[in-house]
Amino acid sequence: MLTRVYGTAFTKNAELDEYLVYLEDIKKRDHNKLGREMELFTTVDVIGQGLPLLMPKGTKMIQTLQRWIEDEEERRGYVRTKTPLMAKSDLYKISGHWDHYKEGMFVLGDEKVDKEVFALRPMTCPFQYYVYKNSQKSYRDLPLRYGETSTLFRNEDSGEMHGLTRVRQFTISEGHLIVRPDQMDEEFKGCLDLARYCLKTLGVEDDVTYRLSKWDPNNTAKYIGTVDVWEETQDRIRKVLTELEIPFYEEEGEAAFYGPKVDIQAKNVYGKMDTMITVQWDALIAEQFDMYYVDQNGDKVRPYIIHRTSMGCYERTLAWLIEKYAGLFPTWLCPEQVRILPISEKYHEYAKKVKEELQNNNVLVTIDERAEKIGYKIREARLDRVPYMLVVGQKEEEDGVVSVRSRFLGDEGQKPLADFVDDICKEIRTKEIRKIEVVENN
């Protein structure tokens, strides 16, 4: 009996050392390990694979991301919808998902037995089309930008499940823009601008690649539409990316069945490429849903549609950020931004006063009231990756100050409480990403 054995050869000790450092960094950053250690999420066998439980800290982070994204979308002219988590199979037959995507859906019922068969939604687009169709639209009404924080369900293979990056239930910053054909290029650019703004704010804009995902002309049965439509839309996306000076590569067979798209991708710590954000060009689906607007001549015209995410799947984004920052998140994203460390029980009242002032300014703050030595409390706060520690004792109480320790500069000395509040509020408001300049040993 033969056994295949895999190995890695190193010609120099330096290569081995470099590889060992690489492995150690993977272990330090792997979100599936670190996210559990930080109590951001967990999984339970009796609940099922691909169905993670977000713990309070992880939930707070996703809530912060979601509120930021929703506010930014509304600032850019989006209106929000809230649509059902399931629909009859009839809806997916109209959209084409029943023919092209049924194996990836959770189907409730059997068409051979049940009068009505439902499926949990794998995407929000057909629901938002009926929001559009609720009333007649004029060319003056377009573009219409619909946004929704959507919970979706996809029947992924059990072997594909991994932490937060590949799951069966997830929440996404989903949106659909209904536009006139002459508006398509500028609106597509606007979607890419929103995506790039999100990437820059999160500090990951240099970690991504852009892919033009095209159809496979040798397997046209997978798609709807004609060759001419596909070639034209791919050319127009190519032109948009070129005009925006975005480097990209092209790959056949990665388009949605109704249109080509731009996939913004990033590698996880193991080198696997994941799609983080997508912007899709759709010149076809409106026909299937009988969507139209009335133009200036009184004629009915089919709109174009952009399917897009502004930041993508929240769970996958959280995994990405865990690995990017090794858990040392920017302060605005941290579920605990400040921990107050009273030197002894005598200063608990002052600690509570400091906490109240910070809470009044929407800073996420806790007090460590344990009867432990201050050095131990500081070490614990650093291990918990809290950005700021405020040590308070007799002198701090008398002078109305706090002694600041941060993971950025270490001991920052004493500051008036009002000054510290102003500083951290500005850091949170501007979503500043401070660099760690002093590394303190635990």
Strand order of the largest sheet: 3-7-8-15-12-11-9-10
Radius of gyration: 26 Å
Superfamily (CATH H level) name of the largest domain:
Bira Bifunctional Protein, Domain 2
Distance between the termini: 51 Å
Number of domains as seen in the coordinates: 2
Strand content: 15-25%
CATH third-level topology of the largest domain = BirA Bifunctional Protein, domain 2
Report the major sheet.
Answer: 8 strands, mixed
Keywords:
35% helix, alpha+beta, 8-stranded mixed beta sheet, BirA Bifunctional Protein, domain 2
Description:
This protein is an alpha+beta fold and 442 residues long. The protein folds into two domains: 15-85 and 121-325, 2-Layer Sandwich (BirA Bifunctional Protein, domain 2); 331-429, Anticodon-binding domain (Rossmann fold, 3-Layer(aba) Sandwich). The chain contains 14 helices and 20 strands. The chain has helices at residues 13-29, 31-37, 56-75, 89-95, 97-100, 125-132, 184-202, 227-243, 285-288, 314-325, 348-359, 374-383, 394-399, 417-429, and strands at 41-42, 53-54, 79-80, 86-88, 107-108, 118-120, 144-153, 169-179, 208-214, 249-252, 261-267, 273-282, 293-294, 300-301, 304-313, 338-342, 365-367, 388-392, 401-406, 410-416. Strands 3-7-8-15-12-11-9-10 form an eight-stranded mixed β-sheet. A five-stranded mixed β-sheet has the order 17-16-18-19-20, with helices on both faces. It has a three-stranded antiparallel β-sheet with strand order 4-6-5. A hairpin with a 3-residue loop joins strand 19 (401-406) and strand 20. Helix 2 crosses helix 10 (314-325). The longest helix has 20 residues, at 56-75. The model has no long low-confidence stretch (mean pLDDT 92).
